[in-house]
Amino acid sequence: MSNNDIAGGEADAYAAFRSELEDFARTACPPEIRAVVAAGQKVTKREYLAWQKILHEKGWGAPSWPREYGGTGWDIQQRLIFEEVMAEADCPPLYHHGLGHIGPVIIRFGTPEQKARFLPRILDGSDWWCQGYSEPGSGSDLASLSTSARLDGTDYVINGQKIWTSHAHEANMIYVLVRTSKEAKKQDGISLILVPMDSQGITVRPIRTIDGWHHLNEVFFDEVRVPATHVLGEVGKGWTCAKYLLERERLPPANVARLELVRRQVTRVVEEAAKAAAGRRDFSSLRYRLLLAEADVKGARVILANATDDLKHQRPLGVQPSVIKLLCSDVAQRLTSIALDAVGPEAAHRFLADDGEGVPGATWVQNYMFTRARTIAGGTSEVQRNVVANELLGA
Q: What's the fold here for domain 250-393?
């Protein structure tokens, strides 16, 4: 068999796989959930969990996990196709904290007992995770964190504060970076601990954000006791786990797939606004800005395809995750700016004055405000540019 025959057979297999996914997305995802996604509304735990249960029943609950842990065993290309098809069909993205973040870290660094306890509950949605990384004085310089954990018998006792904790008010588990030693250099004294949110001494306080959605919180730990068996990986080596997670956090195909979804949503908003205006406003400049954004989305897809091929062949990713993160953050902000201009300044004015209740276009005012944080969350754009500069220029 020639190489061309092999390549052709592989392409046919991927095409058949895409067709299967498209049929499933159209028939299995409930219309009321797809309507939330299509309208650009905030996807809540209700939609995430309902969709996760459907995918889990199908055997597709963890596209990136190996089969031995309940995953699909799909290759990188299949996972990319999955994300693309689900976004095109207005299906919710997978809830990232469990499936995309801590799940793979448990698979890589967890004990057999930890894998048996936590992985199945991520798959079926029994456990809903959040991330305890950032602190009031430790964001981009995460290794400077001060939340502490001291060993007391068979337990670790945690004291400190985490901030900007997404979904902490909905979660029943949190993975927390803590300082277990001050003697070594700062990265070597950090451990990663898995903590039930109903542990005595945990307090969650909401952070009110300008978009009007509740998604961020402060989490306080006051003498919180956790079994030492909940330490993930080696004590004092949690920085290794954190880096492993962050490298994958910035490269999931979902980043680009969701960006394509937002582009299509904004295109609809512009077209609907143009019809409603009935010639009273000129939308040509918005359509031009959409065209430029679409070009950047296509560019992000090319970079992702290259990174996907590198992962597939176990080549170093280099700065590609940082470049994709930078590009996706920037384009998401530009797209929601276009949508805000389409719905008009009156929508923003009424949203702020009326607290968003019943205001036409309010969803896109909220999206605009929400995406202001995209250049901060998951690693600020300034830090990502430094990463790229150091790699390319040796600075």
A: Butyryl-CoA Dehydrogenase, subunit A; domain 3 (1.20.140)
